[in-house]
Amino acid sequence: MPWLEIKDPYKIWISEIILQQTRVAQGWDYYLRFIEKFPSIDILAFAKEDEVLKVWEGLGYYTRARNLLKAAKIIFKDHNAIFPKDYEKILALPGIGPYTAAAISSFAYGLPYPVLDGNVLRVISRYTANDQDILSSKTKKIIENYLNELMQEVKDPAIFNQAIMNFGAMQCTPRNPGCESCQMSKHCMAFKEGLVEQIPFKLKKVKKKVRTLNFIDLIDNRGNRLINKRTEKDIWMGLYQFLLLESNIKFSILEIEETIISNEIKTKGKLTLVKQNEYRHELTHQTIKGKIFTVRCKEIINAGPKMIKTNSLSGYPFPKLLDLYLQDNHDNYDK
Q1: 3-state secondary structure 239-283
Q2: What is the DSSP letter of 203?
Q3: Mean pLDDT for each consecutive 10-residue tract of the chain (335 residues)?
């Protein structure tokens, strides 16, 4: 992994933010592209939001990218473009919680702060036979306190944190852990009490909300199409999209025409529904059903007050759901 054994707090920060909601295999290339595009804090601090979101496109949870930009500006202004060394100052930056602050503090500066990722929580839960909900803040605090005590006797916090994370990833795995060959089994309370398969305990997840988003990709004969920026505090804020109506009703050319008219968009020539694509996108707390209607007309005369008329989508960051649509319909996409 390109970020291992790196002492540069900036690069550690970028890698940790990417890995917050992303598997290593997926985040690897994104990390390399991000560092290539924004190799330092000062370059990131002066980047435009659209530039950052474009590099982040497809990675999801876009608040992470916006917070990276906000934090870079703060570091540039308040810390002379030097990443702070104090844990509390790191924790105060946008998008950085106790886990990320601990990771940066220990890996970059050797400070004694435990990193509480999923592997660490699982290892310590089993080691201490903690059968409480692993996702609750109370359980996490108990484990954090336990590790804080251990940290007082640790010579190298970075090695300790990396070792326990690797131990959870390779030995004390979620399913079929290698207990019989584990050198820690004689001290592991869950192993002694026969609770390894029951720990860590997680409460059943709440049923996800399902949303149906109907997008209208309106294209005229000159290749112009309409997009707008998502500005509300919702998923994909700051990204671009086509004309949207969130509704469970079955769409036809009649509903498409009504949506276009209601948004004060004026077109010339007959509206023709060329095709319909459907995509499903799973988020932590909701499922998105995306329906994209490709519609043709002779000319887009007026884009209305909310939309942008453009014949080039290059440089505009889109949600993964729409990016998949554009890739599948690459004849209409200029990337």
Answers
A1: CEECEEEECCCCCCHHHHHHHHHHCCCEEECCCEEEEEEEEEEEC
A2: P
A3: 78 90 82 94 94 89 92 95 94 92 92 90 94 90 92 89 89 90 91 91 82 94 93 89 89 88 92 92 88 94 91 90 86 48
Amino acid at 260: I
Q: Is 282 a catalytic residue?
A: no
Catalytic annotation, pick one of 16, 193, 246, 255: 16
Residue given tokens 């709440």 in the structure block: 206
Location of structure tokens 């949600």:
319
Domains defined along the chain, listed by start: 9-192 (1.10.340.30), 209-332 (3.90.79.10)
Query: Which positions ≥6 away from 197 have C-beta within 8 Å?
Result: none
| pTM of the shown model | 0.70
Tracing tokens 């595009």 back to the chain, one arrives at: 37
